[in-house]
Amino acid sequence: MTDAPERLALYRRFRPQRFADVVGQDLVVATLRRAVAEGKLGHAYLLSGQRGVGKTSVARILARAANCLAPEDGEPCNRCEACRRILAGGSLDVVEIDGASNRGVDQIRRLREEVAYVPAGSRYKVYIIDEVHMLTGEAFNALLKTLEEPPPHVLFIFATTEPHKVPATVLSRCQAFELGPIPEEGIAEVLQRVAQAEGIFLEPAAADLIARRSRGALRDALVVLEQLGQGGTITPERVVELLGLPPLAQLDGFLDALLHRRADPALAVVAELSARGRDLALFVEEAAGRARDRIIAGEVALIPIAQRLIELRGELGRAFSRRLHLELAVIAHCGPPTAARQGPPPQREAPAAPPVGQSALSDPRHPGQPLASGGRPAQGWEAMLEAVLAERPAVAAFLAPAAATWADGLLTIRLPPDRAYHYEALQDPRIRGYVEATAHRFFNPLLAVEIVWEGKRERPTLEEGARVLAEALEGRVVWEADHG
User: Fold this and answer.
1) Handedness of CA 369, 371, 376, 378 (dihedral sign)
2) Contact at 8 Å (CB) between 439 and 471?
3) Which pTM does this prediction carry?
4) Is the peptide bond before 445 cis (omega within 30 degrees of 0)?
5) Residues whose CB is less than 8 angstroms from the CB of residue 112 and which lie 6 or more positions away in sequence, other chains included
6) Predicted confidence (pLDDT) per residue in 170-192, tens digit
7) What end-to-end distance do the CA atoms of the chain give, in Å?
8) Residue of 437, 455, 448 whose CA lies nearest to 471
9) Architecture of the 184-243 domain
């Protein structure tokens, strides 16, 4: 009894076999076909681009086209003995090397010894090195000597996702081609064609959704198709569930809430996503994409919202609490929710006194438990922002973009250069007093609070400097006018 043959993944079974089959890389394949047809192949090629766009497929097609016994306008025939041997993986003249696993100088030295031998039965001895940027510096130096004086029967094809890591000395000796992300329309067409060939029922809207989420990588799209194809008809709802994407109705509801400046429904969406453990950064990204679609359809009022969502997507990657950051951004845009406008702020219960003989600073229940002096007070700052959000949402919106440091009893709140309005708002005596009073509940010991704007600004006035110094020394400023 023999084992059943291994079933190849979809992306391998439907790998392009000719230049004409390559999707979305027309300029690259046209140039390579012409070089093969005219007999003007270079000795080294560098194919760069994101993962899943066809770099290795193009390299293999070029290897067959260069060695094909009966090329057809630069295309490999895939029928001659040379093509069939390469397709079957049995050719000694086409060597594929994983640069990530064979990155040392010893492997490249062995390669240099091998290139001296003529091909076993082909026109070219082809070396395909994937992820070539992973080679060590010594390996690149060894490879460079071969690239400087290559034997006429050797063809190097390098593939990489990070061409900037390839030394300039190597780049200068290669013909470089960048493979761009595959257009969504092309990916959707391939998905429909593969689904039909495999007997998979794929709704057009689902194909479009998979294509959009694959971000230009056809291989990733085919992997998703294979996962979903085992469970019946592929609908947009199933794609959403597998990829963790927000439903269209939820995106539209969130955008409508922002458009009409209604904080309550927008915050409700954020709360629901958080309760389900969804990726808030992905949601914001999808919301920006949906806003783009509606803008193209004529809703130009969404343009500033889309721009802010794009900014917010970048901010969430650095936020210590994505939910808090997103909620504060919603409030900054829409204003406080209805509950905050209709009644007084909730009263916070005072912390229990520590046991006799125990310092409040070491009591883990104490909200002002300090972190290491000089570090970013992540826990205390987050707790303070949550308290401000519950009590005065508008002030929380002013504080949300800030970074805070706490050292030697001084809490410094720094606002980035593009938040001048937030800084000015926090200078209001009533708001500033509230911020300072709240900070004392979460940072202990706290001598003073300094609010800084990192944009261009004149030197601080004498009054400002005197006030900060007086607060730090627990004193007060006495002006000459006070004594008549």
Assistant:
1) negative
2) no
3) 0.64
4) yes
5) 142, 143, 145, 146
6) 898 899 999 999 999 999 999 99
7) 109
8) 448
9) Orthogonal Bundle (1.10)
